Amino acid sequence: MDRKITLLDQYAGTIKETEIRVSGMQASLEKIQTRMGDIVNSLALASQLDDPSELTILSNEAKSAFFDTVNALNTKVAGHHIFSGAAVKTRPLPDGETLLNTIKSDLAGATTVNDALAALDTWFETPTGGFDAVAYQGSRSAFVSVALGEDTTASIELRSDDDAFRQVLKSLALAALSEEFLPTQTVSDTKEFMQRALGGLASVSDRFSEARASIGLLEATLETVGHETSFEKSNLQQQKLKLIGVDQFEAISEFEAAQQKLDILYRIAARQGRTSLAEYLR
After folding, report:
1. pTM strictly above 0.70
2. Fewest 10 Å CB contacts: which of 129, 191, 229, 277?
3. b/e per residue, 137-150, with b = 16+ CB within 10 A?
4. Residues with Cβ < 8 Å from 194, sequence gap 6 or more?
């Protein structure tokens, strides 16, 4: 029973740690999805704008969303980077400004909108592209499966190099750098980049909803397993008490009875020559 109780304590600790990690993931996904919604609403207006200063405002808003998204993917909980897969001690991505400057530098040289878009796709989506080569520093494998019970395990697979995250970062980078891709940039070019960015963000919206639903399901599982573990431990402790435990009421009664006997002995000893109990016992 002691061995089983110790094992259940270990499971309870693992469940709590996993709950904290998963909760951090859910909060990060919510932040990213909220920023996506904000920038989508803003980019939807790009086609109606012709003033370069207004497009610059949209571009700066996209930069801010890009930085916030990178920060969310670099979230650290209890000393662990939660989107780095098994490499929990390694930050998965550089800071947002460094990453955006790297993309801008690596894509310099495009002369047409299509060239710039193709180069951006290559940078984010191919194994030899810049994202895999210089950006993502986490593990290529999921966070190791953890035992939550004798027959229950959890494997957290969501990482910063997930396709959905790549698409969001690519689209936000496209909007953020929409005025800087081409050496001779026109307002029409900038609006085209922003429209492509809008389409990319819209295409990945459902993926985020699915990811959050999946994390929510895991949260519910952890809660259920946690309750089951707590109940099983409590039940075992009660069984152990029945076998070798002490009846607390009986123990208190015996202690009070012994106290009364000791008091009587002391009074008798005090009357006989007014000696101390210690002397009487000798």
Report:
1. yes
2. 277
3. ebbeeebeebebbe
4. 43, 46, 55, 58, 59, 174, 175, 178
